[in-house]
UniProtKB/TrEMBL annotation:
GO terms for molecular function: tRNA-specific adenosine-34 deaminase activity. This is Cytidine deaminase-like protein. The keyword Cell inner membrane does not apply. Residues 342-482 form the CMP/dCMP-type deaminase domain. Residues 1-36, 184-203 are annotated as: Disordered. The keyword Lipoprotein does not apply. It comes from the Eukaryota.
Amino acid sequence: MGYARSTVANCMPDLNDPTSSTSYRPAPTAPEHLNNTGCKIKYSEGKGRGVYASKPMPAYTLLEINPALLFSAEEYEAHGRHTVLDHYTFKWRDGRMALALGLGSLFNHSDSPNVSYSIDTSTESIRYTTVRAVEPDEELCIYYGTNLWFKPVEISDGRTCADTELVDDGWGGLSAVAGEVEASSSSNHVPEDTSDPNAIVPDEDLPFTRVKLTSDEDDEETSEAVRTVQAWAVDIPDPRHTTSALKWLKSSGLDTPTLSHLKRVRKSPTGTHSTLLLTSTSPTIAPELPSDLDLAAPYQLAVPRSAALTPTSLALKNALWPTVFAPRRKGEPEDWSRARAQWACAAMVRVVEEARAARAAGELPIASYVPAPPEEPAWPSYLARDTRVSSAHPLRHAALNVVRALSNSTASTSASIIPATAAASTPPTSAPTKNGQHYLLTSRALFVTHEPCVMCSMALLHSRVKEVFFLVPMQRTGGCGGAACVPKLEGVNHRFAIGRWKTGAGGVSVEGLEIDEDIDS
Ligand SMILES: C[S@@+](CC[C@H](N)C(=O)[O-])C[C@H]1O[C@@H](n2cnc3c(N)ncnc32)[C@H](O)[C@@H]1O
């Protein structure tokens, strides 16, 4: 908290060792315990007790708010550190020591944590929140930091914490709480912890700085980029019945706000009939129609998922279904919610971790990551390292490798190109392959440790990526504002947003990511 490490750490009892000389022994069975968010206690192989999910949990689920028991550093020095409490104690921001009263004390450590926590000094409490979607029976783990006092048991991908140098994550890393990153959340570029994950984060508190693009940033300027959703529609053979059909629709309960960006009626070009858009809910069960109206059988069709932001996108969307025109003011940036900012921090932590693992394996410390979007947690995510060294291939840059990972996602993958989720081998049909073009990153965000070079930036532009976040600027070679800004160039047919990560934001450090500034990234 790190968990407070003391000079006697090595003399501390091993919670997993029944022969340990301490009087502490893990109980043979976990107590019956289920909190109201669905966390339960179970024994975790080699770790003692742990906290587990009893049901599926979406990303950013608030798991627990635990009061902290605070005591002075002197008390800790004289007593606490000589007891089993040392395993559970961590440093509070003001130098006192703290113990989480509740399940918080039972979260085990993982170097790929699925839970982050934040300290609320005003209420002297700690909030634990999932950072990604969690499966039933999955262990819920936090990140203790780099100075572990025990040998961590292997995590699911076969690595141990000792294999990689890890990031001190201001969102999930206990060491961050120990004051290794700025204590104040705003100076750490971490949005205030409010209970509302939808709260909009002011621009100055975002973990990145937006690189300003002068042109409009609408990402739906080509027909293949138009995002669609399946909806039910019905033809009205006699257009004179359109008003009655509309009246029925309004009272039917089918008329939900999900399609409010679309007109309800489309007239056939010849005027022979009109079509009524019914609903986007239930892809399998056709909506029931009134018997007193002369309507054909309902059918499904693809309609635009959102309003049109530009005249070009309006024309493209109208070709599918009459769409509302809601232009964004030129250069107006997208709002970011707190949940989305947390998702971005977790993604940047993950990609930095991968880059450090790449370096340990003899590669350049560069990695790239396309996480599942927070609003589509079931979509596959992709992770790739730079493999120029091992492949002796000058084009195996991390950003290109991750695009290859996406396009190869139905084929077998190599160790350096990792579908970062189990779902990667069978992407849902609504995932990025939906346009039939497997390299497309339409509507996806890409996190990369080093500013992509001009070549990679151009490739990303072709892939229609929505936004790129990078940590290390590359003044001489970068294509996202360093040597050039590719999405700003005149004549390009797509623009992506760029975020330059703020120093220390989310507890992410650039340590270990040094590369020669002339190397393309
Ligand atoms: C805060 S306690 C966590 C709850 C603890 N497992 C229990 O049964 O009370 C921290 C202790 O859990 C164990 N632990 C936590 N994460 C571990 C991991 N990844 N591998 C092995 N042991 C772990 C270590 O013994 C550590 O000192």
